[in-house]
Amino acid sequence: MRVNGIFWRSLFFGEVKFGESHQAISKLVGVKLGAANDSSEFQTSVAQGRVDAPGHELDGQTKRIISAGMRNEWGSLVSYFEYAVSTLNDEEEARTRAGYITLGYYLGDTLPHVTYAGFDQKSGWGQKSVAVGVKHMLNPTTALKLEWQRISPQDNPEPGAEMAAGLFAEDPGKERVNAFSFAIDVVF
Prior knowledge:
mainly beta
């Protein structure tokens, strides 16, 4: 709920399913708080749910996620930041930290930007990346995006894990991976 456009809070509950698998986070409940003014916005949230992963050792464990994010605009300069920590039944090896920071500068309808992102799990699994991109607004509802990422995945120490290295399902066999993307975003 927004109060005078400056502060809001919301409660949420439900379930998050993971693709085609039968895995989910159920009995999810959380709270989100935020504050904003003309040039900045801050949000934080806390959520907890039960892991539903039939046949997996994680089944029935409690997942907790705490996150915070910020958006700032100073004239043509923009920045975005988000950081999150997740835990699983307070098992130290499963503690995961993730975040990113983006800096950009509007040149009319074009936004060149750079992003540093990463996540790491106490077990040693993780990934870091640097991305350089450009977003061009064709009109108020359509944007073209072009981006290059340099990704440094870390091997997952858990044998047979769904993600072999970083966020790659199969080990890319390289210490660094280049990824190029092009997208057209349309809002209806």
